[in-house]
Amino acid sequence: MGFRAKIGLEVHAQLLTDSKMFCGCSTKFGETANSQCCPVCSGIPGTLPVANRQAVEFVIKTGLALNCRVAERCRFARKNYFYPDMPKNYQISQYEEPLTFDGHIEVAVDDQTVRIGIRRVHLEEDTGKNFHLPDGTSLVEYNRAGVPLMEIVTEPDFGSAEQVRAYLTKLRELLRYLGVSSGNMEEGAMRCEPTVNVVNDETGERTEKVEIKNLASIRGVYEAVKYEIRRQLRAVEEGEPIRQETRRWSEEKHETQVMRSKESAEDYMYFPDPDLVPMAPGADWVAAIRAGLPELPDQWRYRLTSEHRLSAAEADALVATGSASYYQAVVDLGAPPKQASNWVMGPLTSELNARSLPVERSPVAPAGIAELIRLVAEGRITGKIARDVFPRIFQTGKTAAEVVAAEGLEVVGGADELGPIVDQAIADNPRAVEDYRAGKQKAKGALVGAVMRATKGQADPETLNRLIDERLGTG
Ligand code: ZN
Ligand code: MN
Q1: Are the beta carbons of 76 and 94 closer than 8 angstroms?
Q2: Nearest ligand, measured from the Cα of 21
Q3: How far is the centre of ligand 2, averaged over its atoms, from the C-alpha of 283 (Å)?
Q4: Distance from the CA of 280 to the center of ligand 2, in angstroms?
Q5: Cα–ligand 2 centroid distance for 13 (angstroms)
Q6: Residue 261 confidence (pLDDT)
Q7: Does residue 106 contact residue 115 with C-beta atoms inside 8 Å?
Q8: pLDDT at 205 > cutoff 80
Q9: Which ligand is nearest to the Cα of residue 95, counting in written order?
Q10: pLDDT one-digit tens code per residue, 18-67
Q11: Using CA of residue 343, residue 345, residue 350, residue 353, what is the dihedral sign?
Q12: Which of 231, 261, 365, 459 has the most Cβ atoms closer than 10 angstroms to its Cβ?
């Protein structure tokens, strides 16, 4: 046995609160620089912070969803360091007493499930942002300073970059289902710092831990971790030492580069923040938060495959795109699961995507989809007509029944109505008739096609097929 990778992750996620962590300033993204600041979040001496209750609730929610315990009592701590984007010269965080801790989550890669320990989920505040201009000037922007930040720390339980990627995808999905964070790494609302080393379980040999920063996407994390594991394994092979350090991922060069030697906890001189009272989330409150948790992605996937009998891929598509509750509403209105899933992931999703609309803002309500499915099931319109009219329902906000009535799209289904049209098709296509009689199944398509053209796709397929066979004596 040789060396194996050991990876731990620290994820910072901005919380979707309206106001900052310790003051009433807005958290809105993209406003004029330094327009959302006050004496508290710009660190004026003598001001006092007050904790944001909603942010505390969001962290408890996340902790519970990650199977964590909730502290009966915990405190905020000051993490001291000096950097211009930190107006107070310390960050309010949590150190020895996190709000939630000791959880776990299961992650599957290629049918193999691993349990990842969650060491802690704690609450802190975000820093501001420095901008370094080409002419040497530096600017600092404090709108982000004090935005509530949740830190989720795992145990070093990951053994591969693939597991890390699966975890991040799952975590992001979970945060979105909980409604606590956008989880958007590209916008910096979710940031991830992996710590990587390689160990030899037999000999006890191990490399020093290396932390990687500057990762802007899940794909970036995956590639950086993969690179770093390779780099360390090669160093071990060649007998070179791996130093404890912080490295940055270079997207252009596709490699990790030295940034600085890693600070240790002592460097931060943590101590309990004397300006903030300890938090003691009552058991009743925690129970109410637990009771209010929405159905989580894993529970959805399980229910959609077991109760609704959808395939794993169908369930996954609905859950991953956030369309599961919409789909559920269609089913609740009487649509068969399989058809509801096909409509939601097919025509609905493509119309939504074409306009970059989230499913919550769909102009067609679940009742609209359920109605279309019902009209087809009742034989009033064909499946083809249903798909054809859907974009018009989507654009006009009219119901399926209205569009069908206004445009005369009801099925031409009666034998008396269809009969003469079938006769005409037979008369017009002697070659196809001959081939079909000779046993060429494909030739029937030409006859069906002719009738469909004549009826603008409104012929009831079942009646049509029966009539052709009756007329030709081939049934
Ligand atoms: Zn403020
Ligand atoms: Mn942190």
Answers
A1: yes
A2: 1
A3: 27
A4: 21
A5: 10
A6: 72
A7: yes
A8: yes
A9: 2
A10: 999 999 999 998 899 999 999 999 999 999 999 999 999 999 999 999 99
A11: positive
A12: 459
pTM of structure: 0.84
Mean predicted lDDT score pLDDT of the chain: 93
Q: Which residues of 104-131 are buried (b: 16+ CB within 10 A; e: fewer)?
A: ebebeeeeeebebbbbbbbbbbbbbbee
Task: In the chain, count H helices and then E strands.
Answer: 16, 14
Residues of the chain with CATH 1.10.10.410: 415-472
pLDDT digits (tens, 9 = 90+) for 378-403: 888 888 889 988 999 999 888 888 88
Q: What would you measure as the largest C-alpha separation in the chain, in angstroms?
A: 96
In CATH terms, 415-472 corresponds, of 3.40.190.10, 1.10.10.410, 3.30.530.20, 3.40.630.30, to 1.10.10.410
Distance 95 CA to ligand 2 centre (A): 10
d(CA 8, CA 4): 13
> What value does the CA radius of gyration of the chain take, rounded to a whole number of Å?
30
pLDDT of residue 461: 82
DSSP per residue, 50-119: ---HHHHHHHHHHHHHTT-EE-SSB--EEEE---TT-TTSEEEE-SSS-SEEEEEEEEEETTEEEEEEEE
Task: For residues 420 and 411, give the distance between their C-alpha atoms in angstroms, rounded to a whole number.
Answer: 15
Q: With 90 as the cut, is the pLDDT of residue 413 above it?
A: no
Tell me the CA distances in angstroms from 174 to 297, 328, 388, one per residue in order: 7, 19, 36
CA 22 / ligand 1 centre spacing (Å): 7
Q: Minimum-distance ligand to the CA of 265? A: 2
The first and second tokens of residue 427, run together, are 């008369």
